């Protein structure tokens, strides 16, 4: 990390269905990526900028950056001094349960805007972090649920269902399946297009339209996701790198940091206690 930067990514037994990140970044750049969980980030200092939905958005103190699962986005400093924030990554099932109990949202709940001006909810995010660090599980869980319920009521709604209606969208989804199944030894773009009976440029356009990034970028993101699962189950970084198709451990480390925010070893240490007790 750059001098002056610090980050901790962890999961606590107090909140087994929520990952946490607390970080101070200056020159950090997150590449295009997605998360399987929701992202609720409260900036306390500086400005975070991120690409989302074709535009650049800015999260400042008192605001929340809100990202739905499987939504492509980036992240970088919006001012020279960077930004400091606390982030919660609640699992989709947890958010769905809270939505069902506290809102009238029907279907899959989600956030309707990527940045929300909500100092009250931002304070809740920081309070959840403090409660976790103090080992106060009851407070952490209570505050987290109240916070998510508030965000869904104020900034939430049902996510639209994504149904492939064109041949290009169907080709993109079939291509994704092939890449998932052959992640460690994927075909070239030309080979993939040929297998699917379409053209290389047509597949490239369709994949970008469906998933917000070209196949090679999506594949890197998917490899990091799968590597996370392997690390959670006790595999070493070297084993995970080989299994998902990275050239070596250093390649995994570089891409992992650009997506998760910390190196694989720090990530694994932050979640090891939870996985040993659950």
Automatic annotation (TrEMBL):
Domain HTH araC/xylS-type: 173-270
Keyword Chaperone annotated: no
Signal sequence coordinates: none
Keywords carried by this UniProt record: DNA-binding, Transcription, Transcription regulation
SMART domains xrefs: HTH_ARAC
InterPro entries linked to this entry: AraC-bd, AraC_XylS_family_regulators, Homeodomain-like_sf, HTH-like, HTH_AraC
Keyword Ribonucleoprotein in record: no
Gene3D superfamilies listed in its UniProt record: Homeodomain-like
Entry-linked PANTHER family: HTH-TYPE TRANSCRIPTIONAL ACTIVATOR RHAS-RELATED (PTHR46796), TRANSCRIPTIONAL REGULATORY PROTEIN (PTHR46796:SF2)
The protein's name in its UniProt record: AraC family transcriptional regulator
Organism field: Streptomyces axinellae
């Amino acid at each position: 990390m750059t001098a002056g930067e610090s980050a901790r990514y962890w999961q606590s037994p107090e909140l087994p269905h929520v990952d946490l990140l607390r970080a101070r970044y200056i020159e950090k750049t997150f590449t295009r990526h997605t998360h399987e969980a929701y992202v609720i980030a409260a900036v306390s200092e500086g400005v975070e900028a991120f690409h989302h939905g074709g535009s650049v958005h800015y999260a400042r103190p008192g605001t929340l950056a809100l990202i739905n699962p499987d939504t492509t986005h980036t992240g970088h400093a919006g001012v020279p001094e960077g930004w400091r924030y606390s982030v919660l990554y609640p699992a989709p099932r947890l958010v769905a349960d809270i939505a069902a109990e506290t809102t009238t949202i029907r279907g899959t709940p989600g956030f309707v805007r990527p940045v929300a001006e909500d100092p009250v909810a931002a304070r809740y995010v920081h309070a959840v972090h403090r409660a976790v660090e103090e080992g106060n599980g009851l407070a952490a869980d209570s505050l987290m649920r109240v916070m998510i319920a508030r965000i869904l009521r104020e900034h939430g709604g049902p996510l639209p269902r994504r149904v492939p209606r064109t041949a290009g969208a169907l080709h993109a989804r079939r291509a994704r399946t092939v890449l998932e199944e052959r992640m460690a030894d994927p075909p070239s773009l030309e080979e993939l297009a040929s297998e699917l009976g379409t053209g290389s440029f047509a597949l490239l356009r369709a994949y970008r339209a469906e998933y917000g990034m070209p196949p090679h970028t999506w594949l890197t993101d998917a490899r990091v996701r799968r590597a996370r699962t392997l690390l959670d189950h006790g595999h070493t970084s070297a084993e995970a790198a080989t299994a998902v198709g990275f050239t070596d451990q250093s390649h995994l480390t570089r891409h992992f940091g650009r997506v998760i925010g910390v190196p694989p070893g720090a990530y694994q240490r932050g979640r090891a206690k939870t996985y040993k007790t659950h």
